[in-house]
């Protein structure tokens, strides 16, 4: 019995003449973390808004726990939690009042609300700040309160729309830890993100979205295998030198070197191991790189490998 | 997915999906009321968290009382009634009408923030945001009327028709304020921000409150203006409140006119606000 907690089939949505979703499909197994990875304007948020019953799709089907998000809105709303890119908390209310409000509005039995609110404040490290208006909170605290608010009624399915956008590294690490903990509860999490690193760390399965379409899907490991797990950038003194270096490096790794201005970018399965070979080859050809940079692939690299173009920045 | 064994224990604890704590066992209408109350509670807390806004919004009507009582009042003839007794019902109506700006601004602010987005993903009644906003403002108006009555007493205002006359007047005022709140809620939903909402309501408010019987007898106005002033809701509500609080005149006709205006406005404005809300979200 591996029924999908979320299933999306040929989902379409247009805003005027702008196509936000152009027939998108994916399934999220119950109890797993699923990542929707893509640049701004790829359609991630639109998909989340349809799945959380906020928007009606123009075509296709979307189900949460086997129930249609359009026909069975009240069931779906009772089963989901949503935390968005902007902390959706009332700034005038304290942390504890914010959570109690959600408890009331999700029609929880009165006697359960207080215990649940205290439990969440404790878990999200907000007990001390619980009686302060949330406008006094730091960005990271507000985001934690926002996620806590999404969990008050203990929804089996949680949507996190870019939960770390705009957070500092410490806040980001907080959110990551929180998501990992949720999965141990059995909650199904759908997460959207622009960061490959985040998707890689949290998601068991990924769908890469571009222009309202899924352009690749699978486990992060599989996706990385297609593009290599390390990116090596060689900086050279001129574009001509870069082009010469690229020629020298052809065939040394599984991917083709790409020239971008004065840099040569090359993907490798294991950067640390192939780096000496690459340097030796360059040395033999008497090419001296001015800089060498070894890094994890970014969303741009994934897009470059999958589509041949970099992730485009577009307004959502 | 987890399988649950006969004795109710989970055989696969670590992957058991959480059970939602959402309750279902009440009728839609009773949930709609409960949701409306929950949002009312939230809005009232917000008012207490910004006490300086409450303080300064009380200063303006007090200035108006002093202005008309001591600066303009001497020049205004109100046959058969002391000017301060004539003035106060007008001040009450003006204050609650201007107070409804808060309804428009509050709602416009709500709509521009992420909270409404979350509300729309919850199993709550759609009406709760509007009901909660207008009801919280109704509660605020009770306080405002009590405060203005107190200030009025300090400058010589007296109720000449007994406590129940006063209460009936307050009732008329509150009903009117509720109707106005729904109208201003619509403006708040149309505005792109709280600031815009504030600018949008003034052209509506100024003629309604000043070209009325609130501060001067309508009979002193030029004929064309009288036609407007006699047939608009502020005059109707001021006349009814004045009759109920001051006594000495028949109350039936003015009260009927005030009720007709308020109920009529409510029946027209509330559905417009609801339709606008559905469209906006």
Structure characterization notes:
Chain A has 2 domains: 4-224, P-loop containing nucleotide triphosphate hydrolases (Rossmann fold, 3-Layer(aba) Sandwich), CATH 3.40.50; 230-295, Alpha-Beta Plaits, CATH 3.30.70. The two termini of chain A are 37 Å apart. In chain A, the strands form 3 sheets. Chain A has a 6-stranded mixed β-sheet, sandwiched between helices. A 4-stranded antiparallel β-sheet of chain A has the order 2-1-4-5, covered by helices on one side. Chain A has 11 helices and 14 strands. Chain A has helices at residues 44-51, 73-79, 95-105, 110-123, 139-151, 169-185, 196-202, 220-227, 239-249, 271-284, 299-307; strands spanning 4-15, 18-29, 33-37, 59-64, 67-68, 80-83, 157-161, 188-193, 205-210, 213-218, 230-235, 258-260, 263-268, 291-295. The longest helix of chain A has 17 residues, at 169-185. The mean pLDDT of chain A is 87. In chain B, α2 (51-72) packs antiparallel against α3 (83-99), α4 (101-111) packs antiparallel against α6 and α6 crosses α7. Chain B has helices at residues 28-49, 51-72, 83-99, 101-111, 114-120, 128-154, 162-190, 194-210, 223-230, 233-246, 252-280. Chain B starts with 27 loop residues before the first helix and ends with a helix. Chain B is elongated and about 75 Å long. Residues 1-15 of chain B have low confidence and may be disordered. Chain B has one domain (27-280). Helices cover 72% and strands 0% of the residues of chain B.
């Amino acid at each position: 019995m591996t029924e999908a907690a979320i299933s999306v089939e040929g989902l379409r949505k247009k805003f005027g003449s702008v196509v936000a979703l152009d027939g998108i499909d994916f399934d999220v197994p119950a109890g797993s973390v699923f990542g929707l990875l893509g640049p701004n304007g790829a359609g991630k948020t639109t998909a989340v808004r349809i799945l959380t019953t906020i928007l009606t799709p123009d075509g296709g089907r979307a189900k949460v726990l086997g129930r249609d998000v359009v026909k069975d809105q009240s069931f779906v709303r009772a089963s989901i939690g949503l935390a968005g890119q902007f902390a959706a908390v009332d700034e005038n209310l304290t942390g504890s009042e914010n959570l109690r409000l959600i408890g009331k509005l999700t029609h929880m039995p009165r006697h359960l609300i207080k215990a649940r609110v205290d439990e969440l404040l404790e878990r999200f490290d907000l007990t001390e700040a619980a009686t302060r208006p949330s406008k006094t909170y730091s960005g990271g605290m507000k985001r934690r309160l926002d996620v806590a608010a999404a969990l008050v009624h203990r929804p089996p399915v949680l949507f996190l729309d870019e939960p770390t956008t705009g957070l500092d590294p410490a806040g980001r690490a907080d959110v990551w830890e929180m998501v990992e903990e949720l999965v141990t509860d059995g909650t199904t999490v759908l997460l959207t993100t622009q960061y490959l690193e985040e998707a890689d760390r949290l998601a068991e399965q990924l769908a890469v979205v571009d222009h309202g379409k899924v352009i690749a899907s699978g486990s992060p490991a599989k996706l990385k295998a297609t593009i290599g797990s390390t990116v090596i950038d060689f900086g050279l003194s001129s574009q001509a030198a870069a082009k010469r270096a690229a020629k020298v490096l052809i065939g040394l790794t599984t991917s083709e070197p790409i020239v971008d201005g004065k840099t040569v970018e090359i993907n490798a399965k294991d950067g640390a191991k192939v780096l000496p070979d690459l340097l030796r080859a360059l040395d033999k050809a008497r090419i001296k790189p001015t800089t060498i940079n070894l890094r994890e692939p970014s969303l741009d690299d994934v897009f470059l490998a999958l589509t041949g173009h970099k992730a485009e920045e577009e307004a959502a | 997915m987890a399988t649950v064994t006969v004795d109710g224990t989970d055989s696969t604890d670590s992957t058991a999906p959480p059970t939602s704590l959402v309750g279902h066992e009440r009728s839609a209408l009773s949930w709609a009321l409960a949701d409306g109350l929950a949002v009312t509670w939230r809005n009232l807390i917000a008012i207490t968290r910004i006490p300086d806004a409450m303080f300064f919004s009380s200063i303006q009507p007090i200035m108006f009382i002093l202005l008309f009582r001591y600066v303009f009042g001497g020049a205004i003839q109100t046959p058969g009634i002391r000017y301060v007794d004539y003035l106060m019902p007008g001040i009450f109506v003006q204050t609650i009408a201007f107070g409804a700006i808060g309804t428009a601004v509050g709602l416009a602010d709500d709509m521009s923030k992420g909270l409404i987005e979350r509300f729309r993903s919850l199993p709550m009644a759609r009406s709760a945001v509007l009901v909660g906003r207008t009801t919280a403002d109704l509660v605020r108006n009770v306080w405002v009327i009590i405060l203005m009555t107190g200030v009025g007493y300090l400058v010589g205002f007296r109720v000449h028709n007994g406590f129940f006359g006063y209460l009936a007047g307050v009732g008329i005022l509150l009903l009117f304020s509720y109707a106005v709140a729904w109208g201003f809620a619509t403006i708040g939903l149309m505005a792109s921000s709280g600031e815009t909402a504030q600018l949008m309501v003034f052209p509506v408010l100024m003629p309604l409150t000043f070209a009325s019987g609130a501060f001067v007898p309508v009979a002193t106005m030029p004929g064309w203006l009288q036609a407007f002033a006699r047939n608009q809701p502020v005059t109707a509500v001021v006349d009814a409140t004045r009759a109920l609080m001051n006594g000495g005149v028949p109350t039936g006709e003015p009260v009927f006119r005030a009720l007709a205006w308020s109920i009529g406005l409510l029946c027209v404005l509330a559905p417009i606000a609801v339709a606008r809300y559905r469209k906006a979200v």
